[in-house]
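Incident log, support desk, overnight shift.

02:14 A customer reports that sequence design results differ from what the structure should imply. Their input is reproduced verbatim below. On-call engineer (initials T.W.) acknowledged and began investigating.
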């Protein structure tokens, strides 16, 4: 479930006196979501709000970014790890990246600079993830392309501050062109695949059902 912008967000530039209230609402949403082990969607939505409603040369944007990030570090850092928070931040504000960010476990790219990864029979492109499946043998052998999922990127490997909870950070766009990120843990890959697919699908990633999905 995506977070809704606090009331009055679009008037922040004209009514700076409301700025503190708007940021406080976002901070409250992040803290509340963190209690249930989530919060990344709210964290991303808060930065989207700051970027869309306050121009780059307005000091309020920098203040909003700082206060939102400080709240996220306090409530989400131990849950998701700072590398995940950094990756989401730099995917929205790539202009803030510095050379030292190259040392991050997850490197976030500008939203339009898509980096697809393919391996073996699995190929990723603008149409999504497909697999080249071979059927039959000898003269009757055929190869057909099976669609598995919509297009997504693997931004990198992330983990929590204790060096545990290793995951792959995924990013994709839903049908409304909104950007989503999700850390898929290595443990999830050994668990219930249907539950993992349902989680990603709830964020707008299109995934094949039934037989075609089992190819993966």
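02:41 Re-run completed on a clean worker. Output:
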């Amino acid at each position: 479930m995506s977070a809704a912008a606090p009331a009055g967000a679009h008037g922040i530039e004209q009514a700076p006196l409301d700025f503190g209230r708007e940021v406080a609402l976002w901070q409250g949403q992040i803290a509340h979501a963190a209690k249930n082990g989530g919060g990344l969607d709210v964290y991303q939505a808060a930065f989207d709000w700051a970027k869309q409603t306050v121009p780059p040369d307005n000091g309020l944007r920098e203040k909003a970014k700082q206060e939102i990030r400080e709240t996220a570090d306090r409530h989400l850092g131990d849950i998701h790890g700072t590398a995940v928070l950094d990756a989401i931040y730099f995917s929205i504000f790539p202009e803030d990246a510095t050379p030292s960010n190259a040392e991050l476990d997850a490197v976030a790219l500008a939203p339009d600079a898509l980096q697809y990864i393919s391996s073996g029979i699995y190929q990723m492109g603008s149409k999504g993830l497909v697999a080249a499946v071979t059927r039959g043998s000898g003269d009757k052998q055929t190869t057909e392309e099976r669609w598995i999922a919509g297009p997504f990127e693997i931004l990198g490997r992330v983990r929590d501050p204790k060096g545990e909870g290793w995951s792959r950070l995924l990013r994709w766009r839903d049908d409304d062109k909104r950007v989503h990120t999700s850390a898929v843990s290595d443990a999830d890959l050994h668990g219930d695949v249907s539950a993992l697919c349902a989680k990603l699908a709830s964020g707008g990633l299109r995934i094949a059902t039934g037989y075609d999905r089992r190819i993966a």
